[in-house]
Amino acid sequence: MSLDKIIVIITSVVGIGFTYWFFLGKKEKEVEVSDSVDIIVDGGYSPEVISIPKDKTTKLNFIRKDPTSCLEYVVLPDFKIRKQLPLNQKIVVELTPQTSGEFTYHCDMNMYHGKIIVK
After folding, report:
1. To which H or E segment does residue 10 belong?
2. Considering only CA atoms, which of 53, 69, 36, 60 is closest in space to residue 114?
3. In which residue ranges of the chain is pLDDT below 50?
4. pLDDT at residue number 26
5. pLDDT at 116 (0 to 100)
6. 89-106 residue pLDDT tens
7. Are 31 and 37 in contact (CB under 8 A)?
8. CB 32: neighbour CB atoms within 10 A?
9. To bridge 31 with a disulfide, which of 6, 47, 49, 113 should be the other Cys (CB 3.0-4.6 Å)?
10. Residues 101, 118: contact at Cβ < 8 Å?
11. How far is CA 110 from CA 19, 53, 74, 75, 107, in A?
């Protein structure tokens, strides 16, 4: 086997391993919330995945640090909520979910996403 074929095989194996890790190996870090949580809006949402209790009011405090116009609004379609997020101000969204499940939220252009898990 020639050297160029060995290099192609090794590069292919590394590429397959990286692709598997990038798309399938990432685990979302879930943050459990009892009463309130600060969600920093800066090139996305941090924390991106939160877990809240069912039938209990939880305050989501969105604090926008990113001046990008896409992140001016946060949309929670399952709860019929759309809030404007002024720069460097805390905007409180109160949720009292009645059903368990996974619910997404996103920016106004649907480019940045987060997830709410109701248990």
Report:
1. helix 3-20
2. 60
3. none
4. 62
5. 96
6. 999 999 999 999 999 999
7. yes
8. 11
9. 47
10. yes
11. 24, 26, 9, 9, 5
Residue 112 φ then ψ, to 5°: -110, 140
3-state SS, residue 41: strand
Mapped onto helix, strand or coil, the DSSP state of residue 58 is strand
Which of 25, 41, 31 lies closest to 105, judged by CA? 41
**Of 71, 72, 76, the residue nearest 60 (C-alpha):** 76
Q: Are 30 and 49 a contacting pair, CB within 8 Å?
A: yes
| Degrees, nearest 5: CA angle 73-75-77 | 165
Where are the extended beta strands (E) located within 17-100?
30-32, 36-41, 45-46, 49-52, 58-64, 73-76, 81-84, 90-95
